[in-house]
Amino acid sequence: MRTQVAIIGAGPAGLLLGQLLHKHGIANVIIERQSADYVLGRIRAGVLEQVTVDLMEELGIGQRMRQEGLVHDGVELMFKGARHRIDFPSLTGGKTVMVYGQTEVTRDLMAAREAAGLQTVYEVGDSVRLEGFDGGNPVVRYRRGGQEHVLECDFIAGCDGYHGVSRASVPKGAIREFEKVYPFGWLGLADVPPVSEELIYANTERGFALCSMRSPTRSRYYVQVPLEEKVEDWSDDAFWNELRLRLDPEARERLVTGPSIEKSIAPLRSFVAEPMRFGRLFLAGDAAHIVPPTGAKGLNLAASDVKYLSDALVEHYGERSAAGLDHYSERVLRRVWKAERFSWWFTSLMHKFPGEGEIAQKLQEAELDYLVSSKAASTAMAENYVGLPL
Ligand code: RFL
Ligand code: PHB
């Protein structure tokens, strides 16, 4: 089999890239480890920046998002037991974010891919091998249904997430990795009607909590827990009790509790691999970088990466110019590092760090007080949260 661009991974990065390339007549095949249902079963991101919303619209798949997504024009920051609102439009010249789950984005992209008759090979397990990307003829080898397959291509897009094969295929000496692992995780639980119309990010002496949502009837709540904690040790009741203790009196009163449909613990990490190009292999999304979820940036970075990559590939095939491809890594990393900085800053401001003592709490509260009372500080926060321009 032969294609122009072989895409590894059918997460948001891979699926978005596939549609962007297809729109410009560039053939692509996606190779995915899991089944489509498994990919759709993962509950992950919930907040889309305008840049991501615009990409969905550009691809003609914004209709359901427009109907079912929730436009949010602010978030609430809670500290010292009280909530303070950051208003996005007045601070950013009219910008907002869209609450529309990663599952729904993925579902819309899969449907569009199927309607366009584009090929996705699911359930290849750990069999993918990338070869020849340092020369002129890259190939992707994989096994499916007990048979070996070879996909020849011009380029490989590594969109296979943090644990994928693409970054791991690069010789160690050619890549630099920067990493920070936080000493806590997020225990997440879905779903009952949300406690508030906007997201609440809470800094408390007991640790961080986030009240988010997927729809007017589905909440998604998180509490900071020590890394060693096991999800089996958290009954739904224990979760609700802990969340209640981290909310202000009004939210505590309004909180609707019920059985969870999904409960899991996610570790928090900042990670960047440089560069993001190795000959004819390009990394995009979580394959190259991870942010802690506090800034809601992961999916949005995956989207902006593949926008840059598809522009570069369109330039290559259309104008026969390598300039876009040559500058891909440098251009993407400039935006990635700014999102890494924001996510690290917001994580550091909102979480309780073990062993840091009471002064750390006081300093966070002073910074939060400054953040909500200074227009300059609120503007910097709002500008980053709604997303920096491409
Ligand atoms: P994905 O989604 O991990 O997809 C990678 C795909 O590659 C497949 N794969 C392979 N395929 C073939 N061969 C192999 N060897 C393979 N290895 C892996 C995988 O099965 C998978 O289908 O990466 P992608 O596309 O780069 O997308 C990144 C986003 O998924 C991620 O950044 C976000 O979910 C992060 N994130 C959030 N991002 C936001 O923008 N806003 C949010 O509000 C937000 N909240 C979150 C989050 C992530 C979370 N968790 C659980 C990590 C909340 C949470 C709790
Ligand atoms: C979510 O709804 O899952 C979510 C929202 C905002 C974040 C992180 C996660 O910052």
TrEMBL record:
Keyword Hydrolase set for record: no
Enzyme Commission code(s) on record: 1.14.13.2
Domain FAD-binding positions: 2-343
Keywords: FAD, Flavoprotein, Oxidoreductase
InterPro entries reported in the protein's UniProt record: FAD-bd, FAD/NAD-bd_sf, HB_mOase, RIFMO-like
Gene Ontology molecular function terms on file: 4-hydroxybenzoate 3-monooxygenase activity
Pfam families: FAD_binding_3
Keyword Flavoprotein: yes
Protein name: 4-hydroxybenzoate 3-monooxygenase
Species annotation: Ramlibacter terrae
